[in-house]
Design brief:
Length: 178
């Protein structure tokens, strides 16, 4: 048996607790909380017309109060504007055909074959990718192995000048005397 009631819900007190950009969302939540409290249900479904009425002025400016009609069926509350009738979405029921055990076993075998084919296709694709990677050869960059020798004159000049320490440009303690 469906129980139907009409409520006027004050939303301003609730949505002022949230920042401006979340006010319409909080108004929807406030409607749900109000219905849960007053109709003693655990699940609430809001109708499309009520939802559009709350959101029609944008997310920053929902209505301060709203009149709704609540309908309880099988522990679920359906809420809508009083002038509209709530039309819940039809549930898509999975139709299970009664089949004999032999038919169900055949269906299961077919499903297993399809799964095995999919797995084999994936494995083949993976093997092809690995093969392509192996076939692609990169030529190594040639690095000269011969060491570049500095002329001996440069080495002698450096030892005479001394060592430069850091970025200060100061010469080190060890200097070659002329």
């Amino acid at each position: 048996m469906a129980e139907e009631k009409i409520f006027t819900i004050g939303l301003r007190k609730e949505f002022l607790k949230k920042p401006k950009y979340r006010r319409a969302k909080k108004a929807v939540t406030a409607v749900k909380e109000f219905i849960i409290q007053h109709l003693k249900v655990k699940e609430v479904k809001i109708g499309p017309n009520l939802n559009s009425k709350i959101w029609e002025r944008g997310k920053r400016n929902p209505p301060s109060k709203i009149k709704v009609k609540g309908l309880v069926e099988e522990g679920i509350a359906y809420v809508e504007l009083p002038e509209f009738e709530f039309k819940p979405k039809p549930k898509e029921e999975k139709k299970l055909e009664k089949t004999s055990k032999k038919e169900s076993v055949e269906v299961a075998k077919e499903e297993q074959k399809k799964e095995q084919e999919k797995e084999s296709i994936k494995e083949l694709a993976h093997e092809e990718k690995v093969k392509e990677k192996k076939e692609h050869h990169h030529e190594p960059i040639e690095v000269p192995h011969a060491e570049i020798k500095q002329p001996e004159k440069d080495i002698e000049n450096k030892s005479k000048k001394g060592r430069v320490v850091g970025s200060t440009g100061k010469k080190g303690a060890k200097q070659a005397k002329p």
